[in-house]
Fold Potassium voltage-gated channel interacting protein 1.
Amino acid sequence: MSGCSKRCKLGFVKFAQTILKLITGTLSKDKIEDELEMTMVCHRPEGLEQLEAQTNFTKRELQVLYRGFKNECPSGVVNEETFKQIYAQFFPHGDASTYAHYLFHAFDTTQTGSVKFEDFVTALSILLRGTVHEKLRWTFNLYDINKDGYINKEEMMDIVKAIYDMMGKYTYPVLREDTPRQHVDVFFQKMDKNKDGIVTLDEFLESCQEDDNIMRSLQLFQNVM
């Protein structure tokens, strides 16, 4: 691994830790001031005001996130291999590579093979502070692997299996090998309301919001994000 790649990898671990502070609410106003003083980076991305308008982050939160992102990975982009390496650190008992692949492509909305700061904060804004409807739409896009506007059973199985693989064999209670398939069979049957073999966005939204069990299971996705 090159020096730049190592630095990017370490930098995004720090970036993830900053995100964790946002989730838990420990990134206080005073802490934000400290972070700004420590980074001492004069450059600010053009369109910061636009990002503030488009996301649920304040200007100061965006400044902290951007400075951490840019300081540690000067290229300003993350490729899929680095993204996978980062995820592997957070899930040492499982194989996170497949799930990280799907998640990376959900972040890479322009399909360029790299994820920019703007891509990250836009998605994170939805996942951390978006409405239930916004989070569900984003999750639907993740499950719609081939981006044809529908989710079929194979796509749902691929994502669910990737999540179980990432969590590893040390889950409690211990999961049977056919657990992912059973999970998908039950939920797909509930979601595919007209029994045509695919789940539309409307079916997905309706099913998730009317079934507490589905909503609780989707929390697994948000927890591994």
